[in-house]
Write a structure and sequence with these properties.
The chain has about 1000 residues and is α/β, with parallel strands linked by helices. Helices cover about 55% and strands about 5% of the residues. The protein has 44 helices and 14 strands. Helix 10 packs antiparallel against helix 11 and helix 17 packs across helix 21. The longest helix is centred in the N-terminal third of the chain and has 35 residues.
Length: about 1000
């Protein structure tokens, strides 16, 4: 045991001083050895407790192990105190603990032997309730999966909420037999997820184990993780009953009810007693409820549309109360199409209902204003407007011009929308929309203006406009229009490749439209969520959202094309080229344009051999895209796709197109599509150079891509472009070597260990320090080179910075942060005062360590140390966040985007002593992380970890800093301290996850 672990039994006996006890709790939360020791010690205590037959309590009343977090929070549970009171003093003394534990171990062994003689494990071990199940999901352990009726905890007073206790002896027998999955199942049925997860992770790998790990993720609310794990199980075993059942539950929880019904149908088809019947009932209920919602919405929309196109149509008053959004859309057209004063006034009751929903008189005023018009002039125009809506007008463009000069502005505005030409006449549209004072139309104008600003490359203006519009958007009557604004903002964020921001807007919009029952907007948000999941590299979720949207509108050709072309790009990203081609074939059957997604898949499929029709299809798709309204960044991206396709057919023309895409993108540094085109084109050119064995060109291209000079020796360039991996090195003598491989079949996951071929690792062994040049997804991964090697990632800058200010500046230390209590994070111990006085040291502690204050103090700092919690939350940020003290408005996070906007004039050394602070966003076109943001802002060197680190890691970072201050190059300082730490704690894994960025 390492020195901290030696304190375990002092901790258990409650004999540590308060400060040491608190420190040990933090150590215990991250130390596997101590957690195991705690588990074993408490089992022994309980066994001893049983063996001594304490008064008033029986073994059946006991639970085998209280939860770890409960044990840490309550150092001395009452039962333990009573037990210690009965144990001889020599066993209770710390010095005699080992002997006491050994004595209790003998008791435990005797109990286990007794159970073995008695026979098999009783079924009560896996029954939380004797007559029903309280866990809705299924456990993939046969003896825990017998069918019983599901009764949720809220079912009523007649249902006992007291679970059967965990039988100690039987679980001891299972552990003796090595049946850890059986123990995990016993915890699972009782919803003790922490213990269940611990035992599952100690269980040998199997599909059943993975299915139950997915169950834990589902119960913890990690639905996307659960879906990914379950789909992995089902790919290998399509009829796995527990995985099928639990996948249905995940889909239902995600709101994908038709997909969930289909999944329950698959369970029903297995014919399992009890389970199949319940699955049929669940599938029927989900499908019926979903179809009812669809039918109610479509009936309401049809009734509203009939008002404008069908003479004498009834007023949908009840529908207006339930679906005010879609009915209001129809109402506007009905008022415009009213050919007489009487026809207009007939709509007044509907206007009153819709106004009552919103709480104003806007639509009543609209009806009265139109009723006062000169219908001798307006009447014929209104009748022609109704023909336009029905698609019966013989000369719609000429009619549009007639309306433009007619003075009937409301008819002109409606015709612009009906003909989908608002963008061409945006000034007219905005003028009319604002003139009437109708908030619905004003918000619509704001949306259309944001589209123009985005197309002009002024995305920041579009974002500000949409946020301001949403801030002014309130009332149930405007909720439909508010939802369309939220969808527009989410769509903007998707195109800007800001999935965390997009996810926030899309989730809010998805929830709002489900509450409103607006089926058409639900469909739009389904597709938005699919795009966001794709950018976050969550293939299972992206597929699920797309297939749900497909199931909801199976007969709409436009929707089928959209779904299948996007399913094709998801399949390609998931390393399934055959499935990608099949989906693309499905997308072509309607004859609709394949869009950017289709062009993307066609371009990449060329690597696997383009079919004869592929080039024609790609050229037609690119031509359709280029004829549309495309930004310059999108044009550069289209050039890249054409160049990649042609590279496989004609290398010279392909390379020329790729270089052209790079040249075009260089002029647009702020355009995300341009940055994608640039990065992807460089990756393809590097793959091509690696394929022909030109390591010199690989290094040159990598330096250009990263905007960094390429060292003449001791350099490693690494690029993973989907299935292709290119490596090039210069050793200590400057000798070139490299490899090329195109056999990758899965994405990189969290570590680059084993990625560099052994012979190239050996070639770099003579280097004192290796500069690593890498694009995503390699950039920022740990394990690229051995722990004995000194190395660092090189990071280029995309903007010019002021020259660093000499050797001045203070040493900023952020420690003892008062994180928001709502996060439930443990309190980290503040750093000790430095051993040697440091007059330049500036500390921010407690409530003063807010994001704004830290950013201010960083500007002039020469050294920056931040000792706090790090979290990764896709809902908050694309990369990891640093948790600081909350501002007055509640904002507590320091994100990469905030750091990047700061200018660090002191060119500081930055130490981020926080869990996962180096974790990157899952983007393939550029590295996005806190270390990269600090380098972009002006830092010269950044140390951060990709994984969790213990509270003691603060000393590790400080020791690295001291070595650097003493003159050791940063990479060697990190390597030396890592090796020294591992010599003291050989079992520690976290030091190898601390990376250096320069």
């Amino acid at each position: 045991m390492s020195p901290p672990c030696n304190k375990l039994y002092l901790f258990l006996d409650g004999e540590l001083p308060p400060v040491d006890e608190e420190n040990f709790r933090h150590h215990l939360a991250r130390c596997v050895m101590c957690a195991t020791g705690l588990h074993e010690a408490m089992q022994l205590e309980l066994l001893g407790f049983q063996a001594m037959h304490l008064d008033g309590e029986t073994p059946e009343d006991l639970v085998i192990v209280p939860r770890l977090e409960e044990r840490v929070a309550r150092p001395r549970p009452t039962w333990r105190g009573r037990l210690r009171a009965r144990v001889p003093a020599w066993m209770r003394r710390t010095q005699g603990w080992a002997a006491g534990a050994a004595g209790l171990a003998v008791v435990a062994l005797l109990l286990v032997l007794t159970v073995n003689v008695a026979g098999g494990t009783p079924p009560e071990v896996w029954l939380a309730h004797p007559a029903h199940r309280s866990l809705e999901a299924r456990v993939a352990y046969a003896r825990a999966d017998g069918y019983r009726r599901y009764v949720p905890m809220r079912a009523g007073p007649e249902v006992s909420l007291v679970t059967t206790p965990l039988p100690l002896r039987e679980l001891a027998e299972l552990e003796e037999q090595g049946d850890l999955h059986g123990i995990a199942a016993a915890y699972l049925v009782r919803k003790d997820l922490r213990q269940a997860s611990d035992f599952l992770r100690r269980t040998p790998a199997s599909l059943d184990r993975d299915s139950d790990l997915a169950l834990v993720a589902l119960e913890q609310g990690r639905r996307e993780d659960a879906l990914e794990m379950l789909e992995s199980v089902l790919r290998k075993s399509p009829d796995h009953p527990q995985a099928l059942w639990n996948r249905a539950l995940v889909l239902r929880e995600m709101g994908l009810t038709l997909q969930a019904a289909d999944a329950f149908d698959e369970v029903a088809a297995l014919g399992e007693p009890g389970w199949s019947e319940e699955a049929r009932i669940r599938a029927l209920a989900l499908r019926s409820e979903t179809m009812r919602r669809s039918r109610d919405f479509h009936d309401a929309r049809a009734a509203a549309q009939n008002l404008a196109t069908l003479e004498g149509a009834r007023l949908p008053l009840e529908e207006a109360r339930r679906f005010p959004g879609v009915v209001r859309l129809g109402f506007y057209d009905a008022v415009r199409a009213a050919p007489t004063r009487e026809a207009a006034l007939r709509l007044l009751p509907l206007a009153e209902v819709l106004d009552d929903v919103q709480g104003d008189s806007t639509l009543r005023d609209t009806v009265n204003r139109v009723a006062g018009a000169d219908f001798a002039r307006r009447g014929p125009l209104a009748r022609d407007y109704a023909r336009l809506l029905r698609g019966e007008h013989p000369t719609p463009d000429a009619f549009l011009e007639t309306l433009r000069s007619s003075g009937e502005d409301d008819l002109y505005l409606g015709a612009l929308v009906a003909r989908d030409v608002v963008e061409r006449h945006l000034e007219d549209f905005e003028r009319i929309a604002r003139a009437g004072g109708d908030a619905w139309l004003t918000l619509l104008a704001e949306r259309e203006l944001s589209v123009r600003e985005e197309h002009a490359g002024q995305w920041w203006k579009a974002e500000q406009r949409l946020r301001a519009a949403l801030a002014s958007c309130s009332g149930r009557g405007l909720a439909y229009r508010c939802a369309t604004l939220r969808r527009r903002l989410a769509d903007l964020f998707v195109r800007l490749h800001r999935p965390a921001d997009a996810l926030e807007e899309a989730r809010d919009g998805w929830r709002l439209t489900r509450e409103l029952g607006e089926w058409n907007l639900e469909q739009q948000f389904l597709q938005e969520m699919a795009q966001i999941a794709r950018y976050r590299q969550s293939a299972a979720s992206a597929r699920a959202f797309l297939r749900e949207s497909l199931a909801r509108i199976p007969d709409d050709c436009e929707q089928r094309t959209y779904a299948h072309r996007n399913l094709a790009i998801v399949a390609w990203a998931d390393f399934r080229p055959d499935e990608a081609r099949q989906e693309l074939e499905q997308a072509t059957r309607c004859g609709r344009p394949l869009g950017m997604a289709g062009a993307w898949v066609l371009s990449y499929l060329a690597r696997h051999g383009a079919q004869v029709r592929d080039e024609d299809l790609l050229r037609r798709t690119l031509d359709e895209l280029r004829r549309g309204s495309r930004t310059q960044g999108e044009q550069a991206l289209l050039t890249f796709l054409e160049g990649q396709f042609m590279l496989e057919r004609d290398r010279a023309s392909g390379r020329a197109l790729l270089q052209g895409a790079i040249a075009a993108a260089e002029k647009l540094p702020l355009d995300v599509d341009a940055r994608k085109a640039r990065s992807f084109a460089y990756a393809v050119l590097m793959s091509d150079a690696g394929r022909v064995g030109s390591q010199e060109q690989v290094l040159e291209l990598m330096g250009q891509a990263l905007r960094v000079p390429v060292p003449r020796r001791c350099v490693l360039a690494m690029a993973v472009d989907h299935e292709r991996t290119v490596t090039a090195v210069r050793d200590a003598n400057g000798t070139l070597a490299g490899t090329y491989d195109e056999g990758r079949t899965a994405p990189l996951h969290g570590s680059a260990e084993g990625l560099v071929p052994p012979r190239l690792v050996a070639a770099l062994r003579g280097c004192e320090h290796v500069d690593v040049l890498a694009l995503p997804p390699v950039h920022g991964l740990p394990g690229l080179l051995p722990v004995e090697q000194a190395w660092s990632y090189r990071v280029g800058r995309t903007r010019m910075l002021p020259e660093a200010r000499g050797q001045g500046g203070h040493h900023l230390v952020v420690t003892g942060v008062e994180a928001p209590a709502s996060l439930g994070l443990e309190t980290l111990m503040p750093l000790e005062a430095p051993r040697v006085p440091d007059p330049l040291r500036v500390e921010l502690r407690g409530a003063s360590a807010t994001p704004s204050r830290v950013l201010r103090e960083m500007a002039e700092a020469r050294e920056i140390e931040i000792h706090t919690h790090g979290i990764f939350s896709p809902e908050l940020s694309d990369a990891s966040l640093l948790v600081l003290a909350p501002e007055a408005d509640g904002r507590y996070a320091l994100a990469a985007s905030q750091v990047r906007e700061q200018t660090l004039l002191g060119a500081p050394l930055v130490l981020l002593a926080a869990c996962g602070a180096a974790r990157s966003a899952p983007f393939l076109h550029e590295p996005v992380s806190l270390p990269v943001a600090f380098i972009e802002a002006g830092a010269r060197t950044v140390l951060a970890s990709t994984g969790d680190i213990p509270d003691t890691a603060g000393r590790f970072f400080e020791s690295v800093r001291e070595r650097i201050r003493a003159g050791t190059p940063p990479a060697r300082a990190l390597r030396d301290e890592r090796l020294a730490w591992l010599a003291r704690e050989p079992a520690a894994t976290w030091p190898s996850q601390v990376l250096l960025f320069e």
